[in-house]
Every structure is written in structure tokens, then in C-alpha cells.
Design goal:
Chain B: This is Fe3+/spermidine/putrescine ABC transporter ATP-binding protein. Chain B: GO terms for molecular function: ATP binding; ATP hydrolysis activity; transmembrane transporter activity. Chain B: Keywords: ATP-binding, Nucleotide-binding, Transport. Chain B: InterPro entries: AAA+_ATPase, ABC_SmlMolc_Importer, ABC_transporter-like_ATP-bd, ABC_transporter-like_CS, Mo/tungstate-bd_C_term_dom, P-loop_NTPase, Transp-assoc_OB_typ2. The structure holds 3 protein chains of 3 kinds. Chain A has helices at residues 3-14, 17-21, 26-56, 73-80, 82-116, 119-130, 137-148, 153-160, 175-185, 187-199, 203-211, 216-244, 248-253, 261-271, 275-304, and strands spanning 60-62, 65-67. By secondary structure, chain A is an all-alpha fold. Chain A has a single domain, classed as MetI-like fold (Orthogonal Bundle). In chain A, helix 10 (187-199) packs antiparallel against helix 12. Residues 1-8 and 14-21 of chain A have low confidence and may be disordered. By secondary structure, chain B is of the alpha+beta class. Chain B has 3 domains: 2-223, P-loop containing nucleotide triphosphate hydrolases (Rossmann fold, 3-Layer(aba) Sandwich); 236-280; 283-351, OB fold (Dihydrolipoamide Acetyltransferase, E2P). Chain B is built from 8 helices and 20 strands. Chain B has helices at 42-50, 92-96, 107-120, 136-148, 166-183, 194-200, 218-223, 228-233; strands at 2-13, 16-27, 31-35, 57-62, 65-66, 77-80, 154-158, 186-191, 203-208, 211-216, 238-246, 250-255, 259-264, 275-281, 287-289, 298-309, 313-319, 327-332, 345-350, 356-358. Chain B has a 6-stranded mixed sheet, with helices on both faces. Chain B has a 5-stranded antiparallel sheet with strand order 13-12-11-14-20, with no helix packed on it. Chain B has a 5-stranded antiparallel sheet with strand order 15-19-16-17-18, with no helix packed on it. In chain B, strand 17 (313-319) and strand 18 (327-332) form a beta hairpin. In chain B, helix 3 (107-120) crosses helix 4 (136-148). The relative contact order of chain B is 0.12. In chain C, helix 3 packs across helix 10 (212-220). In chain C, 75% of the residues lie in helices and 0% in strands. By secondary structure, chain C is mainly alpha-helical. Chain C is built from 11 helices and no strands. Classes of the chains: A mainly alpha, B alpha+beta, C mainly alpha. Chains in contact: A-B, A-C, B-C. Chains A and C meet through helix 1, helix 3, helix 5, helix 6 and helix 7 of A and helix 1, helix 3, helix 4, helix 5 and helix 6 of C.
Chain lengths: 308, 360, 267
């Protein structure tokens, strides 16, 4: 849950009336002193900059001079321009697809490690899963390009074994390539939260369910899955949110149809030198991510009895 | 000699009144227990004495010195924590010698002191072991040695036996009493286990809702609880309704089902006014009369309602005319004494001297 | 569950596919990164020692990563320690703000810092700006790792040290610090690794001296240098695996020291 809404929500939740009335405990005082440096850091380097781009999004820029008159013109322009809207829509769609694919692929792995791996070997499996992701992201994305390319590893081997005659062309320089690459990039971020949720499930609950006449499949659907939902929700958010902000993968493997809003934000800031427009797009991206996330959380609470 | 004196101690956590007007004096060399259900404030009280919590109002004096503003590291108290708080990264000897770091002693003296402390708690030769390799009972001994090595004026024990199994717990109770006599240090024990408190203490303060309900030696506490609440918390007790008719050195009282009795004034909580009153009677002061048995005590007809067999004892619930709730009584299972069946008509012997008048 | 096991192994192949390719191309005797492979060579590793620009970028990245690791771990210790303390007003929102970068697209952090630094304060971009930003995004990870270490601590341990005559500071030094040391080392390594690999923010905020990922990004459009990058990538992968293995071993040792069962996992 990114952005201001979250910030606002936690601020509102954090103020308990009795805290303001009552005196600080000794331990609370020490906590406050200790939290000051990291909090001041986050305030200065995160809250202030976020507020600044919000402000910038209401300003305009003409070549090098910034016009600080308050205006909605950036937003009108953004909403009026089919290119921006198409990029935003595509970003949300791609991020959605990446999320669905990543989480669906990740769930069985998390389930396997949690339920079918001996306890003493679990951390080895987790270690194996995490290792590839501490290696250079850029190089990894580039290597996917090598794998998926026209003369790439995949096509060569498929032709080699005689499964296809012509190299497949729908797997590189389009949205599919972006989805595959990002599903790879975010794998551990999806596996770990689901694994943690599955680990917390008391195994005797499953035995109780079997004892009460459910089959293994219905036990999975009625007990395991609902209890794993907090992990799934965390996985969905952890994958979905940063995906919107990625511009490396679309640029390298996305081709012209795979570009996303982050590429445009980058262009506005670094090429067109239009910071206010870039800020506006950044704010819009953030708002739409927040909106989608909140809707997802709401749906989950409403229909899947997910975490409160 | 009074070692610890608490007067008018109050403590709030937000809106929660954790300690209410605590007045307490503990003597040098006493084994004192704070007994009560969870959330009654006993641990908070112990922690204010240790200096981990400051008091809202009132004062704590240890050995005549006001403890206001004195940190836990500077107080003449040491604590055995509920979790024992054994430092997991240090060996047994390093744990025990932890508090000697600043002591004005040579290395040899420290080593000797640690060895003696370990001997004292029966862990001689365990010094080199890793703290993690110890059992629950051993950890507890290390915690004791670590606190006692500093020769505190007061040793504070926060539910020290609650994490042990029944057998070891009973063994440690005896060892703790012996140890306390040996070192002569004042012990203050926090416990929710009434039996433990009765077994170990010279005096017990029973706490409810942040206040002290009754403070007495174990026998007085058991025999003459001053309120229904204390009576309920300590041991088993039958409660009967009664009506005080006349007061004096002997209190005249009508008890439901048992009729007119006279009770010694010391069996009542201070002054008693004529009117309704609650009367307590312990199960072991009642006894069943078997076929043909006679007694010099008073007797009343009863019907066996429930039988619970404990091996050494049998607990009976019996119905007596005029009392709504069955009376519980306990009988030793002596040789030749039968266990009665439910529904048996019988008689119960009782004694006026075992009646206690209770406040609220 | 045979099917699941096969799936798990297939998934691992998917995860490791790109990493397997890395050494193949690093030792491949060809200018382009494509199949078929030509032959074995260590030429690209030799080239690596001659490429001054690349070396400079690596050195730059190492400086940034080391500074970030130290800064974010120190701030993380403060925050993780504070989190174990009793409540104070606004505790949750304060912690929320500090953890926010975890759920914020990196490009947002990048552009907002860019605007503040360049447009508002008129400052130049340098390694310092990248370190500042990397510390911001690494801090939540440090806190997550350290939280585990601090929360596993029995609060009575500190009280016991105080009770035995130590001051707050010496209790921290003698009891808490040694017990959370494995967590601190994990935090240092994780922040270091994140910073070393981070591209999105570094691209926006780097000054005259590019970081390693920024330099590689530049090369991706001029493929002539790519085999050298593969060689360096191979070295870095090997290095990461070594570092992470150490971190994992430290974590296990920490658990053992605290007398806890291994529940698995870094994060």
C-alpha cells in the first residue's frame, strides 16, 4: 500500500487518545529518543521529497523556468493525452499480469517447501530460492533477452529438438517478455510471504479437518488456503507495487509495445526536462497503484475473509 | 528490624490502577510472599521494589534509604527473573560472575566467589558449561547464584518456580527455604500458587486488584481468612449464609442448616455488627460419621451427592437440609474405612471452632 | 507429492537459467552474446583488468555500498531497538514512514529526491546523493532483519544486567550487542548487496561518476563491451554467493546462540 493514503491511515491509527493524555513511560521515552535519528532521516529524505513532487505536479515548466502558479493543467494534459493514459493502463495491466503469474507460480513452491520439505532442509531451499536474486538485476534482465531472443537459447533449443521449425517471435520485445522477466525477478518476493503464512498454520488444524471428514483437496481449499491468504495478499502487493515503477525491463525486453509509465516518467525528467509533468505522472502512477491495492485489499476482506 | 518499608505506594499505567495504597513493612531475614491471581499487581509491586518501575506516589525505603530516583543497578536488591534471563552468549560461570565486573576483587577472588556461589546452589563444576545446555531447574539455580553472589540485602523472586515441572518445583521449594535460612537474606517471592506461598513463606500478602487483601503468616491466613475473596483464593472453603445475633468475646450467630452457634471473636474480621454475614468452613474440619460411629462434636444429617476419589483422600459433596449448595468435605482413606456411594444417608460431624466469619 | 517436487525442480531451473548462462558467455570466445558458443577463453577476464572505466565504476559502487550498509545498519539498530520499547505517541506512523520505501516504487523515491536535490536545493549530484537515497531504501530491510534479532531478545536480559549493577550503556554493550551481532552482520551484508545492485535510483541520482549498474546500462546499448560485463557479472555472482553464505551461517549461529530453533529464511 503505497503513498499518502497509507501514510494518512497510519498517522490516524497511530494516535491513540490515551497516549496524548497519559504520560510517557520510561521505556516509551527511550523509544522516542532512539527512533528520532531514523525518523528524521525518513522525514527529510522521503516525506519532504514526496510533498515536493506533489507540489511540483501543480506547477508548470517552460524550458528552464518553473512557473509556480497553482494549476491543474498538468493533470488535464495527462488525462487528455491518449499516450499517457495508454501507458498508465498498460502499466497497470502488465503489473496485474506479472502479479497473477508470479503469485500463481510461487504458491506451489512455497507450499512445497513448507509442507513437503523436512524442517532441517527448509532453510537450504529458501537459500537456493533467494540466491539468484542477489545477482545483478540488469545482467539478469539482459540474459533473459538472450534466452528469449530470435536466435536465443529457447528458440535454438526448441528448433534443436525439432519442436518448432521457425523461431518463436512472440516471446521477445513485447508485453509477454516483460511478464516472463518480471515473474522471474519478483519470484522470491512472492514465495517468502506465502511461505511464512503457510509455516504459521498449525498442522493439527489440517488433521482436525481430515478427522472431520474433509478430503485432502477440500482441506486445502477450506483450511490451508484461507489461512495462507495473508501471505498471498502480501505477495500480491509486494509484486504489484514495484512493478509499476520498473523501467528497466520494459526498456530492455519490452519493445515499443512493452513500454510502461515509468519509462515516460524517466523521459519527462531526464530527456524532456519537464519535472512538473514527470511529477504529475509519478503522482498518478502512485495514486492508481494505491487505488488498485486498496480495492484488492477490500475485495479480499469482503469475499475471502482475509486479514483485517 | 524493618528492612523494607513501603508507604502509600500507588502506580498507574494509563487509566489502569496497578497499585493501590500499598503499605508494607518487611523485616530483615524474612521470607515474604506476594500472592495473588494474575493481573493483581504483585509483579508490578516487585518491580517497583527492584527499581524497574517508578512509583506514582508514595515512597519505598530500603534499609532506611529512600529509593526515589535510585536506578535498579544501584539498589541493594537483586532479582531472579521469571524467564531466569540467563545470558545465552555467556557460560555458566560468566553468568554467575556477571555482576562482579565492577567489584574491587582480583581475578582469583572472583573465580573463587563464582565457584562458591555455584557450590551453594548445587551446581559445583558446571561453570564451564554453555548457558543454553542447561535444564530449567539448572537455569533457575544459575539465576539464584548470579543474584546471591552480590550479597544483596533483598532477593526478589518473580514466579521463579512457575516454569518447572511439579516434581522439580516441589524439590526447589524445599531448597529455596534452606538456602534462605543459610544466607539469611530477605527474600520476596511473587507467586500465584497458594500452596507454594503457604509452604515457603514467613508472611504472605494476598493481593487483589492492585491492593493488599490480607497480610499474615501462613497459618493465620489459612485458618482465619478475613474476607470471602481471600478464603476463596486460598484452599477450599464452604460458604454458608448466617445472621449475627449478638457480639462480644463470643459472637452469637445463626448459620443456615447448622443452627445457632457461638464463635470466638478472633474467628471474625475485626468488629462485627449484628445482621447477615458470610461464614466459611474448611472441608477438612468436617467429617463423615460411618455406621455406628459416635462423636463429641455436633452432628447433622446429610446425603452423599458426589464422590471424588483421590487415592489418599476422598472428597464428598453432601446435601444438608437448609443449605442450597452441597457441602464439600474431605476424608482420609484410612484402613477399613469404606468409600460411600452417592445417595447414602449419613451424618456429618462439625465443630463451632472451625467456623470463620468473613468480610467482603 | 511427486508432482510438486518435479514442479519445484523445474522452478529452480527457471530461477537459475540466467545465472547459468553468465559463466558460459564470460568464458565464450566471441564478441557477441548469442548462441552457438565459439570456444573457451579467459580473454574477457584479462580485458577486465584493463578496463579502467569499469574498474572505476566498480570502485565507486563499492564505496557507495559500504557507506550505505554502515549508515542504514546504524539507523536500523536505532529503529529496531526503539520498536521493542513501549508505545509513545505516533509510534506507528513514525515506523510506517520509515518502512514506507519497502512499498514505494523505486522510481518515485528517485524522482522525488532528484527534484528536491536539484530543483529545490540546487545541489549537484554525487556519490553522496546516491548514498543518501540508498540508505533510505535499505533502512527498512535493515530494520526487518534487525527486528528479528531484537525481538528474540528476552527483555528481562537487559533488566538482569541492570539489576546486576550495569548502566544502560554497559548493559547494551555487554549483553544486547553480542546477542544481536549476527543480525547486524546480516543487515550490513543485505544493505551492501542491495545498494551494489541498485540501478533505478542510481541512474537518476548519479553525478559524474557512474555506479557499476549505471555503467553496465550504458554498455547494454553498445554490445562490444558486453562479454567483459559477463566476466565481471560472473565474479560478482561468485562473490554474492560467498557473502550470502556467510550471512546465512551468521544467522544460524545467531539463532543457536539465542537458543532458538531455525525457522528458516532471511527476510
Amino acid at each position: 500500500m503505497p503513498g499518502f493514503f497509507v501514510l494518512l491511515r497510519i498517522v490516524l491509527q497511530g494516535i491513540k487518545p490515551d497516549m496524548l493524555r497519559g504520560r510517557l513511560t520510561e521505556s516509551g521515552k527511550r523509544g522516542l529518543v532512539l527512533i528520532s535519528p531514523p525518523f528524521a532521516y525518513a522525514l527529510l529524505l522521503l516525506a519532504v521529497p514526496l510533498a515536493t513532487i506533489l507540489l511540483f505536479s501543480f506547477w508548470t515548466q517552460d524550458y528552464l523556468t518553473i512557473d509556480t502558479t497553482f494549476t491543474f493543467s498538468n493533470y488535464t494534459e495527462a488525462f487528455g493525452d491518449p499516450l499517457y493514459m495508454a501507458l498508465l493502463r498498460r502499466s497497470l495491466l502488465i503489473a496485474g499480469a506479472v502479479t497473477v503469474v508470479t503469485v500463481l507460480l510461487a504458491f506451489p513452491i512455497a507450499y512445497f517447501v513448507s509442507f513437503h520439505v523436512q524442517p532441517s532442509r527448509k532453510s537450504l531451499w529458501l537459500f537456493l530460492i533467494t540466491i539468484p536474486f542477489w545477482t545483478s538485476y540488469l545482467i539478469r534482465v539482459f540474459l533473459w533477452k538472450v534466452i528469449l531472443g530470435y536466435n536465443g537459447v529457447l528458440n535454438s533449443s526448441l528448433i534443436g529438438v525439432g519442436l518448432i521449425d521457425e523461431p518463436l517471435s512472440f516471446i521477445l520485445y513485447n508485453a509477454n517478455a516483460v511478464v516472463i522477466t518480471l515473474a522471474h525477478a519478483f519470484a522470491p518476493f512472492a514465495i517468502l510471504p506465502i511461505f511464512v503464512a503457510l509455516e504459521k498454520i498449525d498442522r493439527s488444524l489440517l488433521e482436525a479437518s481430515l478427522d472431520l471428514g474433509e478430503t485432502r483437496v477440500t482441506t486445502f481449499l477450506r483450511v490451508t488456503l484461507p489461512l495462507a491468504m495473508p501471505g498471498v495478499v502480501a505477495a500480491v502487493l509486494i509484486v504489484f507495487i514495484p512493478t509499476i515503477g520498473d523501467y528497466v525491463t520494459p526498456r530492455l525486453v519490452g519493445g515499443p509495445d512493452g513500454l510502461m509509465i515509468a519509462n515516460m516518467i524517466q523521459t519527462q525528467f531526464l530527456k524532456l526536462n519537464n519535472a512538473p509533468m514527470g511529477a504529475t505522472l509519478a503522482i498518478l502512477a502512485m495514486l492508481s497503484v494505491t487505488a488498485v491495492s486498496l480495492v484488492f485489499i477490500w475485495l479480499n476482506r469482503r469475499w475471502l475473509r482475509g486479514p483485517k | 528490624m524493618t528492612l523494607i518499608q513501603l508507604s502509600g505506594v500507588n502506580k498507574h499505567f494509563g487509566d489502569y490502577h496497578a497499585l493501590r495504597d500499598i503499605d508494607l513493612e518487611i523485616q530483615q531475614g524474612e521470607f515474604f510472599s506476594l500472592l495473588g491471581p494474575s493481573g493483581c499487581g504483585k509483579t508490578t509491586l516487585l518491580r517497583t521494589i527492584a527499581g524497574f518501575e517508578d512509583v506514582g506516589s508514595g515512597s519505598i525505603r530500603i534499609d532506611g534509604r529512600d529509593m526515589k530516583g535510585v536506578g535498579p543497578n544501584l539498589r541493594p536488591t537483586n532479582m531472579v527473573f521469571q524467564s531466569y534471563a540467563i545470558f545465552p552468549h555467556l557460560s555458566v560461570a560468566e553468568n554467575v560472575g556477571f555482576g562482579l565486573r565492577r567489584a574491587d576483587m582480583t581475578r582469583d577472588e572472583k573465580t573463587r566467589a563464582v565457584g562458591e556461589a555455584l557450590e551453594m546452589v548445587g551446581l559445583g563444576g558446571y561453570g564451564g558449561r554453555a548457558a543454553n545446555a542447561l535444564s530449567g531447574g539448572q537455569r533457575q539455580r544459575v539465576a539464584l547464584a548470579r543474584a546471591l553472589i552480590l550479597k544483596p540485602k533483598v532477593l526478589l523472586l518473580d514466579e521463579p518456580l512457575s516454569a518447572l515441572d511439579k516434581k522439580i518445583r516441589e524439590q526447589m521449594q524445599v531448597e529455596l527455604i534452606k538456602l534462605q535460612r543459610e544466607v539469611g537474606i530477605t527474600f520476596i517471592l511473587v507467586t500465584h500458587d497458594q500452596e507454594e506461598a503457604l509452604v515457603m513463606s514467613d508472611r504472605i500478602a494476598v493481593m487483589f486488584d492492585g491492593g493488599i487483601g490480607q497480610m499474615d503468616d501462613p497459618e493465620t491466613l489459612y485458618r482465619r481468612p478475613r474476607s470471602k475473596r481471600v478464603a476463596q483464593f486460598i484452599g477450599m472453603m464452604n460458604f454458608l449464609d448466617g445472621e449475627v445475633a449478638a457480639t462480644g468475646t463470643e459472637i452469637e450467630v445463626t448459620v443456615q442448616g447448622l443452627g445457632r452457634c457461638s464463635v470466638a471473636a478472633e474467628q471474625a474480621p475485626g468488629a462485627v455488627a449484628p445482621g447477615p454475614v458470610s461464614i466459611g468452613i474448611r472441608p477438612e474440619t468436617l467429617s463423615l460419621l460411618f455406621e455406628g460411629e459416635t462423636t463429641t462434636r455436633k452432628e447433622v444429617a446429610a446425603v452423599v451427592d458426589e464422590v471424588v476419589y483421590y487415592g489418599d483422600m476422598t472428597y464428598y459433596d453432601v446435601r444438608v437440609d437448609g443449605i442450597e449448595k452441597p457441602l464439600t468435605l474431605s476424608m482420609k482413606n484410612l484402613i477399613g474405612r469404606p468409600v460411600l456411594d452417592v445417595g447414602t444417608q449419613t451424618r456429618v460431624a462439625w465443630d463451632e471452632r472451625s467456623l470463620v466469619l468473613l468480610g467482603h | 507429492m511427486r508432482g510438486l517436487r518435479i514442479y519445484a525442480i523445474a522452478y529452480l531451473v527457471f530461477l537459475y537459467a540466467p545465472i547459468f548462462l553468465l559463466p558460459l558467455f564470460a568464458f565464450n570466445d566471441a564478441d557477441i552474446i548469442a548462441f552457438p558458443l565459439s570456444g573457451f577463453t579467459t580473454h574477457w577476464f584479462e580485458e577486465l583488468t584493463r578496463n579502467a572505466a569499469l574498474q572505476a565504476a566498480v570502485r565507486n559502487s563499492l564505496i557507495i555500498a559500504a557507506s550505505t550498509a554502515v549508515l542504514s545498519t546504524i539507523l536500523g539498530i536505532c529503529a529496531a531497538r526503539a520498536a521493542t520499547m513501549a508505545d509513545w505517541p505516533l509510534k506507528r506512523p513514525m515506523m510506517g514512514l520509515i518502512m514506507l520505501p519497502l512499498v514505494l516504487p523505486e522510481i518515485i523515491v528517485a524522482v522525488s529526491l532528484l527534484v528536491v536535490i536539484v530543483q529545490v536545493f540546487g545541489l549537484g549530484l554525487s556519490n553522496a546523493t546516491i548514498i543518501a537515497a540508498h540508505t533510505l531504501i535499505c533502512m527498512p530491510f535493515s530494520i526487518a532483519v534487525l527486528n528479528g534479532a531484537f525481538q528474540n531478545l528476552d527483555p528481562a536480559l537487559e533488566e538482569a544486567a541492570l539489576d546486576l549493577g550495569e548502566s544502560r550503556w554497559s548493559a547494551f554493550r555487554l549483553v544486547i550487542l553480542p546477542l544481536v551481532m549476527p543480525g547486524i552482520i546480516s543487515s550490513l551484508l543485505i544493505s551492501f548487496t542491495i545498494s551494489l545492485d541498485e540501478f533505478i535510483i542510481a541512474f537518476f541520482l548519479s553525478g559524474a561518476n557512474p555506479t557499476m549498474p549505471v555503467y553496465i546500462w550504458g554498455l547494454l546499448r553498445f554490445p562490444g563491451q558486453l562479454p567483459v560485463v559477463m566476466a565481471m557479472g560472473t565474479i560478482l555472482v561468485a562473490l554474492s554467493i560467498i557473502l550470502l553464505t556467510i550471512a546465512e551461517l551468521m544467522r544460524r549461529r545467531g539463532l543457536k546462540r539465542a537458543g532458538l530453533k531455525d525457522t528458516g529464511g532471511f527476510l
